[in-house]
Amino acid sequence: MAVEVTDSNYSELLNAGLPVVLDFWAEWCGPCRMVSPIIDKLAEEYAGRVTIGKVNVDENNDIVSEFGIRNIPTVLFFNNGKQVDKQVGAAPENVFVKKIEALL
Fold first, then answer.
1. Rounded distance between C-alpha atoms, residue 93 and residue 97, angstroms
2. Which residues contact 68 (CB under 8 A, 6 or more apart)?
3. What is the architecture of the domain spanning 3-103?
4. What local confidence, expressed as pLDDT, does residue 25 receive?
5. Cα–Cα distance for residue pair 56/79, rounded to 1 Å
6. Active-site annotation holder among 20, 21, 22, 29
7. Which H helix or E strand runs over 1?
8. Residues 61/20/73/37 CA torsion (nearest 10 deg)
9. How confident is the model at residue 1 (pLDDT cuts 50, 70, 90)?
10. Active-site pick, 22, 32, 35, 43
11. Which DSSP symbol is given to 89?
């Protein structure tokens, strides 16, 4: 299961030493509901190698503003605390796998 990421813990996660994948979503977002099971599956598959988290955009204004999230779902990919890739909109699992593998 993906980690719940909030305004209060995201900075710590980004600097914990592992690559990080953040899924920005909302309950009312149809495409987000399509991406969510993929994110949860990948969180299990990459446990211990990549931190995969979900950010509820309705509850976490600071992180949404900091990364300029305007459309959801948006998935950001971080390595060494810096954003290195981005996926805007729903995509099939293989797209996310390719981007995660590039972090390793």
1. 6
2. none
3. 3-Layer(aba) Sandwich (3.40)
4. 98
5. 21
6. 29
7. none
8. -120
9. confident
10. 32
11. S
The residues, any chain, with a CB within 8 Å of residue 35's CB and separated by 6 or more, are 23, 25, 73, 75, 90, 91
Question: Model confidence over 37-49: pLDDT tens digits?
Answer: 999 999 999 999 9
Q: Which two tokens stand for residue 74?
A: 């948006």
Written as six digits, the tokens of 26 are: 């909302």
Q: What is the mean pLDDT of the chain?
A: 96
Parse the chain into domains and list their residue ranges: 3-103
**Cα diameter, the chain:** 33
State pTM to two decimals. Answer: 0.96
Alpha carbon distance 9, 5 (integer Å): 6
Residue labelled with tokens 């797209």: 95
How many Cα atoms within 13 Å fall on the side-chain side of residue 49? 10
74: which residues sit within 8 A by CB, 6+ positions away?
A: 23, 24, 86, 87, 88, 89
Concerning whether 32 is annotated as a catalytic residue, the answer is yes
52 is catalytic: no
